[in-house]
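Hi support team,

I'm opening this ticket because the web form for multi-chain structure prediction keeps timing out on my end. I have pasted the exact lines I submitted so you can reproduce it. The total is 796 residues across two entries, so I didn't expect it to be a heavy job. Is there a limit I'm missing, or should I split the entries? Thanks in advance, R.K.
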Amino acid sequence: MMRQLAQQADTKIVLLVLDGLGGLPMVPGGPTELEAAHTPNLDRLATEGTLGQTIPVLPGVTPGSGPAHLAMFGYDPVHYEIGRGVLEAYGVGVHVGEDDVAARGNFCTLDENGDISDRRASRIPNDIALPLVEKLQTIEVPGVSIEVQHVKEYRFVVVMRGDGLVADITDTDPQQTSVPPHPARPRSEEAGHAAGLFNKWIDVARKVLADEHPANMFTLRGFSSDPQLPKYEDVYALQAVCVAVYPMYKGVAKLVGMNVHNFAGDSPSAEIAALSSVWNDHDFFFVHIKPTDSRGEDGDFEGKRQVIESVDTALPELLSLRPDVLVVTSDHSTPARMRSHSWHPVPLLLWAPATHRPDKASRFGERDCATGGLGTFPATDLMPLALAHAGRLRKYGA
Amino acid sequence: MMRQLAQQADTKIVLLVLDGLGGLPMVPGGPTELEAAHTPNLDRLATEGTLGQTIPVLPGVTPGSGPAHLAMFGYDPVHYEIGRGVLEAYGVGVHVGEDDVAARGNFCTLDENGDISDRRASRIPNDIALPLVEKLQTIEVPGVSIEVQHVKEYRFVVVMRGDGLVADITDTDPQQTSVPPHPARPRSEEAGHAAGLFNKWIDVARKVLADEHPANMFTLRGFSSDPQLPKYEDVYALQAVCVAVYPMYKGVAKLVGMNVHNFAGDSPSAEIAALSSVWNDHDFFFVHIKPTDSRGEDGDFEGKRQVIESVDTALPELLSLRPDVLVVTSDHSTPARMRSHSWHPVPLLLWAPATHRPDKASRFGERDCATGGLGTFPATDLMPLALAHAGRLRKYGA
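Hello R.K., no limit was hit. The queue was backed up. Here is the completed structure from your submission:
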């Protein structure tokens, strides 16, 4: 439908994503993080524009960052999946090309029989894991190139590049102890070549790590390739750019065909300031603010509130660019009270002065969003709404 | 999706169903039955928790009890059907096993030519129908056993048990008068055996009833078997129990794998009191309150209001069990004003003190539910929401 209706227009859309924005009261009847925050600029936009709330994947379903972003970008997150290997690779800035196969690695401990005694190698810290990753980087397998990057503690990512590689391979992690790691097994005939090459690499790695302790081996999970997502330009006729600090979000943005703009600084105001230098070359701007989610995961209600306020403070600079459509929302909720992602609906503010229809709301907060004029709807419907308000969707039918 | 994400947790969910709860004002601008009721306990839960409304099947579609309960239990009522024969059998407490075929019977009147002159046999009362059912119970067909039970007035149910029975059989009710009843016709080759046996039984029955008046024959409708619904334990990883007074609701609960708890008494307070004896052995509790629907069908606004108040009065005993998630809702609306089931959205109250997100509502009523924080959504999404609030759904994707 979008491919059929999308049209060019001289308008600009900003999708300002405060990761994990949705929250919960810490005490019964109290405010959420967003409701507690002093946000005069957002409240003005809420008064002028329209509020609503989105369901990231399905009611009750708590999404990981991959599916949540895909949905917000308009892709059905149940149909389109980004494999764990690819997502982890993007998380540390490692590119996964169309013919590459990525996997997530976990260092583990094998006992004298070769059985796993600790699936996370005592959660070794970075300074012990890094030299091990460097050892793995020295291993060569003829016919392919292999990139290994440390992620955090016992986690790393490996990407294999070469001809005829297919990622349809089962995890080597048996998900239990007292058994040896599985070999990499192809799930289809085409994947046999790649599985064989990974097993060769694993065999050498086993010898290389044999004398280490506690991390004398690893398991691999989430073998995956570029999911070949439709691109923003093709689906929405948009020239899109991503302004984000964390590599993973830049990676997901690349997968849907956005350009990635690198800039100095990492604060919300630095991100918003960075918009001006790409303003003229693009018509869609994905701005990703991470620390709302991080403070939520920390259980830090006050910290999350402050991040929200810092975004509000930077908002006038964004508005001075005169976007035609500004969407302020999130990929999912991360209530400080729960210290984790959650399934709760996501607050949404749509501001498009030429066409927005005001509702009764006068503040940007969960309670107001619940009764907002846009109602409660699947996150995948957000992009068509933004395009419409930007005059970028043709009429359907006569 | 639920099979993939459901996980065990040490939490308990209560689904308190006031059948036909949704209502309408009797006078323009007046309160609905629920709004007119004095419900201090429900109002407190509404203030603390989150309201919303569900669509039972599709907007504008008035559901029967079967589809409405299936939807509320999380099964697409368009995909999964409980045949009328099976539903009627469960309504009078007759079990329909996996290999049985049930049909609903209507006594009718045949004229001297064998054509139907009255499709409901002058709606004969129970005391005339019962001896006829007893006559039918004496008929034997070699190779199968047959159970016949009276339902009400001119209605009865027949269940055939034996080997190789398939229910894919057309109604014998021609849905018009001045024609004879159809024979039972198989719609598929496999159903030929069962259709033949039903026709044998019908032929004997015709002779047995020949001298009766006005009910000298019957028609059969809704040949059906156990619909083989996925079970709560397999789909949701829940040990579920049903607390209900009416056989039909116990039957539907059995079809989705719930245990059925029998207890003394039939008032809402007796049902809630009965919960305590099964509390420790289960983690999902379906409590079905029938008289809200009955009073609605009677057009008895005041009576329906009083039933709602009696549930409210019994609520503290339920809360003393400390459920983690309490859902108060209905299968469909039965406005006293309409004296029938209706398509209107169904009021919903979700109370889960650890994770509910409060909205602006302070009363449990249709007007507050319409602007509640959960929005308006299909009834089939209710179970995932309840599971999420009980910590029983894993995160989706990385």
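A quick check on our side: Chain A has two domains: 2-77+230-389, 86-224. Let us know if the file doesn't open in your viewer.
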